[in-house]
Specification:
The complex is a heterotrimer of chains A (383), B (289) and C (322). Chain A has 383 residues and is of the alpha/beta class. Helix content of chain A is 40%, strand content 22%. Chain A folds into 2 domains: 21-136 and 275-347, Rossmann fold, CATH 3.40.50; 139-267, 3-Layer(aba) Sandwich (Rossmann fold), CATH 3.40.50. With 289 residues, chain B is mainly alpha-helical. The chains are: A alpha/beta (383), B mainly alpha (289), C mainly alpha (322).
């Protein structure tokens, strides 16, 4: 991965002399701390798209580590804008960091392409013509799960998620659609974020609630602990597990092992999505990395795709790049996508998938697809 | 909430208590004997988990990891003892806290360099992966194994301390190190042995915890605080104190998590503060301190 | 016992002037670094007051700083009070928090004091972390800087803000030096070196300890205000115990019990961190090793070591002259 980045950086340096209109991209991602793996994966996807297009020379990348801490992220964003004078910022994994930099990039009028952070407000009531999201919003990913689960005839559910903004938004969106579909959320809890390692007490509560299904949102290390512990309690029969797709993300599902088999979740991308672009994308990635790509790879990849498309449409400076991103449509390995002109959030298909065994490993079996999921403006006024 | 619910929550609490016990017993005995505060104890726990994952991959069996990880951590501990710990014994709590705080940073990056940033998992051994029926509830066998293991370690340590000559030497040295040395006990060698056992138990806790929790680079720092709380509540240097402390903290955190998640987070800090103010020597103080 | 030697005054002035020049001629990033150094320097000086002179190694100073920053945030961003009185109130809140913790923990020493401060610091961290009103883990934004437009100073520009931060470092240093030279400072040193004797001559050690923590908390509160105004965004991270640990590293790196040492330590630490993070994501390991090496080298720290050499040379010179 480092090597890939170095080649890209070297190529961009070589091209400095030749290219007249190089675009300076600030890459604002966590490279240390809890989310370092996500930051690396997004960077990888971004560089992959540039290399595939043979356009690494057109872009100069300035990488900054947010450590997934809001104050650090804001300080680094200022540095990118005020010292490096970048044309566009790409990245942001944690919602907290996005919340922290939101006012600054909006005020400085620097386009920001969000490649992960999912807080609903960023493309809702706190939206900005300068903030474009190519990843997902929390509500967008978990609403389809509520809808789909109710359609399957499941009547009652219990919810668990970490006690921070994303956890609350995922659960709220799920509960809303699940209730609208005729289901009932009979209970739930929010676990202390980053401080919960033993989910035993919560699983016991969930079991005694008598619900038919368990809906959860966890990510990273917490997801692995949670799924493994869920598996060890042998609840698959009594209390099947459904989730917002990050809970069994291809990035770390291998660490969850057999416990993840049978878990059904909703996500905007899985490596088994069936279309030509994706087949090629997965092949290229596998050849270089010897594993399957994840939703984080595709987010980085599409951030580069969107940026290149904006530049191709004639955009060259901060204002014109932001303007060109709005309303953009292009084909992604995850299916056709559109940047909603009303909110600047991505409009995309969301997949319901089940984690299944394949040979020695695990893979994702797509059970259903909800097409072109679009967020309501939720108070967003871009003009 | 039927009886089964209470049994399950009780087992959850017991399981967590036993993990805390494995960690805190090493920390507390090292303190009792060497008067040394090892903030890097949590880092050794983390190394136990990571070494266990590698050992399991290498030997193809969980039991390989179960044996090799504690040995590996003991080797790390021995290295630390000769390079740092022995030199710092008389250096006062601040220097000890600082050097071992520095070690936390060092181990954090060693783990990142060696095993990457993605959290890793370890599978429980085949025979222990299902659930068992106990007291009318079905409970993960592996968690029962942790409870049993904790009880066995507890019993063995108790026997060694109370019934053997080495135990008598350790107790004498905790009570009065100078006098023990004057009586002809090789205090240096004894200290080294006890330090190694403490490290081995931290490594054991790490490899045992890995199948339940995933191995992450942050696990060492996050387990450190509960472990310190256990040790101080029970009484620094006291074996019975570590047992009592583990059970109390395990119970508070589990019951709190099940009923009052918002209160659970501060409950153990409140208890720690109360103990420090009202009874700084801990609930069951070690004699001689 | 604290002495403001001529060497210390020279080093202080030299360091502050160097930082100011760096901020003036160094561009945006230099100014960010100067502010970062200023925050860490004040926090380290406040820890040095209790740890270096009173022997009270505190792991709750990050939390004290955070109490100040959050009080400032609540009063300004949430409740809409003007910045200047809010800052005064926030620093007062930090001093009160420090005094209370100091008073409750005054009977404990050594490792027990470390653990007790850890407990109180983590409690404050957890309460703020859990509070949804304060933004929880996501933090709180919109903290204002002071408005000095009437004086023609634009605080929203990076240079005036960096110079303002340096001015506060100077003020905090002078305040700390003044207090440590006073009868109170001397009594505190006395308690540290022989507590029973101080008690025997009628000194209330508990009140002195609590006051020391209160004064130290006041300084940490100033650091909290700069931290909040700098990024104009705060998060619970600020209160986590490792922040205090890092500041302790800075104190040791520079020289414990010298007041000027922590400032030198802050400069060295921040520059080292930024240089290293340019090369590697694994800068923690280097910081850890440097810390261990500093303690093993005698624990005098950068400035302490230089002072040690100087007094030795002077002593040798005096011996030769005799």
């Amino acid at each position: 991965m480092k090597k890939l980045f170095l080649t890209a950086a070297a190529a961009s340096l070589l091209a400095v002399t030749g290219a007249s209109a190089q675009t300076k991209v600030g890459v604002l991602l966590p490279y240390s701390g809890t989310y370092a793996a996500l930051g690396n994966e997004i960077t990888l996807g971004f560089n992959m798209a540039l290399e595939e297009a043979g356009r690494t020379g057109e872009f100069e990348l300035v990488k900054e580590d947010t450590e997934a801490k809001p104050p650090v992220g804001l300080a680094k964003a200022r540095k990118l804008v005020l010292e490096d004078e970048v044309d566009v910022i790409m990245g942001l994994v944690s919602s907290g960091v996005l919340g922290a930099v939101r006012d600054f990039v909006d005020g400085a009028e620097v386009p920001l392409i969000v490649a992960n952070a999912g807080n609903d407000e960023a493309t809702g009531e706190a939206c900005s013509p300068y903030i474009t999201r190519v990843s997902f919003s929390n509500g967008q990913v978990s609403r389809p799960m509520g809808e789909w689960l109710a359609e399957q005839g499941v009547k009652t559910a219990y919810t668990l998620a970490p006690d921070y903004a994303a956890g609350h938004q995922m659960v709220d969106a799920f509960s809303q659609k699940f209730t609208e579909g005729g289901g009932e959320v009979v209970g739930g809890e929010f676990t202390p974020f980053g401080q919960t390692s033993d989910f035993g007490p919560y699983l016991t509560n969930a079991k005694s609630s008598g619900a038919e299904a368990l809906f959860v949102f966890y990510a990273g290390g917490e997801a692995i602990s949670f799924v493994k512990q869920y598996g060890s309690f042998d609840l698959k029969e009594d209390l099947p597990l459904y989730g917002s797709g990050f809970v069994t993300s291809p990035l770390y599902v291998a660490a969850e092992g057999d416990a993840a088999v049978g878990v059904i979740a909703s996500l905007h991308y899985v490596p088994t999505v069936d279309n030509e672009l994706n087949t090629k994308f997965v092949e290229t990635y596998k050849a270089a990395q010897d594993k399957a790509p994840s939703e984080f790879t595709i987010q980085g990849y599409d951030a580069a795709k969107a940026l290149m498309a904006a530049i191709d449409s004639g955009a060259s400076d901060r204002a014109s790049i932001a303007e060109a991103l709005r309303g953009l449509t292009f084909d992604s390995p995850r299916g056709p996508v559109e940047i909603d002109a009303a909110t600047n959030n991505i409009v995309q298909d969301v997949y319901i998938y089940e984690t299944v065994k394949e040979g020695d490993g695990l893979t994702q079996k797509v059970l259903g697809k909800i097409e072109a999921v679009r967020d309501e403006p939720n108070g967003c006024q871009l003009d | 909430m039927d009886a089964g619910f209470w049994v399950l929550q009780f087992l959850n609490a017991l399981q967590y208590s036993m993990l805390l016990f494995l960690l805190s017993i090493g920390l507390t005995v090292i303190f009792g004997l060497l008067h040394f505060v090892n903030l890097a104890h949590g880092a050794l726990y983390m190394m136990g988990a990571y070494l266990g994952i590698s050992a399991a991959a290498l030997t193809g069996s969980y039991w390989g990891a179960f044996i090799l990880a504690p040995l590996g951590v003991t080797a790390i501990g021995a290295l630390l003892y000769f390079t740092l710990i022995d030199r710092l014994r008389g250096a006062g709590p601040m220097n000890q806290v600082l050097v071992t705080f520095g070690l936390i940073f060092v181990f954090l990056d060693i783990a990142r360099l060696g095993w990457g940033d993605i959290a890793l998992g370890l599978d429980a051994p085949a025979g222990l992966s299902g659930t068992s029926n106990l007291l009318g509830v079905s409970y993960p066998t592996y968690r029962l194994f942790i409870i049993g293991l904790g009880a066995v370690v507890m019993a063995v340590l108790w026997l060694v301390l109370a019934r053997t000559q080495i135990g008598a030497m350790i107790r004498a040295s905790v009570e009065n190190g100078d006098m023990a040395a004057a009586m002809g006990i090789n205090v240096g060698r004894l200290f080294f042995a006890v330090f190694c056992v403490g490290c081995a138990l931290a490594g054991l806790a790490g490899v045992v915890a890995a199948p339940v929790f995933s191995a992450t680079t942050g696990m060492g720092i996050s387990i450190l605080i509960p472990t310190l709380i256990v040790v101080v509540i029970g009484g620094l240097g006291s074996l019975q104190g570590a047992i009592a402390g583990s059970l109390i903290v395990g119970l508070i955190e589990t019951v709190g998590a099940a009923f009052l998640p918002s209160f659970a987070a501060v409950a153990s800090y409140l208890l720690l503060a109360a103990i420090l103010v009202l009874r700084p020597q801990g609930l069951i103080p070690a004699r001689g301190t | 016992m604290f002495h403001q030697t001529p060497t210390r005054s020279i080093v202080l002035v030299f360091a502050l002037v160097a930082l100011a020049l760096y901020a003036i001629y160094g561009g945006y990033f230099a100014r960010e670094i100067v502010v970062e150094i200023a925050i860490l320097a004040i926090l380290a000086i406040s820890i040095d007051v209790v740890a270096g002179f009173g022997g009270m190694v505190s792991l709750c100073h990050g939390a004290i700083m955070g109490v100040s920053a959050y009080t400032y945030g609540i009063l300004t961003a949430k409740l809409g009070y003007p910045a200047l009185p809010s800052a005064v109130a926030a620093i007062g809140a930090a001093a009160v928090f420090g005094t209370v913790v100091g008073w409750i923990t005054a009977r404990t020493t050594g490792i027990y004091f470390i653990m007790a401060t850890l407990a109180f610091g983590q409690m404050a961290y957890t309460v703020i972390f859990k509070s949804r009103w304060l933004g929880g883990d996501d933090g709180m934004g919109g903290l204002p800087r002071f408005d000095f437009d009437w004086a023609g100073i634009a605080m929203n520009k990076s240079l005036p803000f960096a110079l303002y931060a340096l001015l506060l470092v100077l003020l905090c240093y002078v305040a700390a030096a003044w207090v440590m030279r006073s009868a109170f400072g001397r009594t505190l040193c006395g308690i540290h070196s022989n507590e029973p004797r101080m008690r025997a001559i009628g000194v209330s050690t508990i009140i002195h300890r609590a006051r020391a923590m209160g004064f130290s908390g006041l300084l940490a509160g100033v650091a909290g205000i700069i931290a909040g105004q700098h990024i104009q965004y705060i998060s619970p991270e600020l209160l986590f115990w490792t922040v205090s640990g890092e500041a302790l590293i800075v104190v040791i790196l520079g020289g414990l019990g010298t007041l000027i040492g922590p400032m030198i330590g802050a400069i060295a630490f921040v520059l080292l961190k930024h240089e290293l993070s340019g090369y590697t994501d694994h800068w923690h390991i280097v910081v850890g090793l440097v810390l261990i090496a500093t303690v093993l080298a005698g624990g005098r720290g950068l400035y302490g070591q230089i002072e040690h050499w100087m007094t030795r040379r002077k002593a040798r010179g005096a011996a030769q002259n005799a």
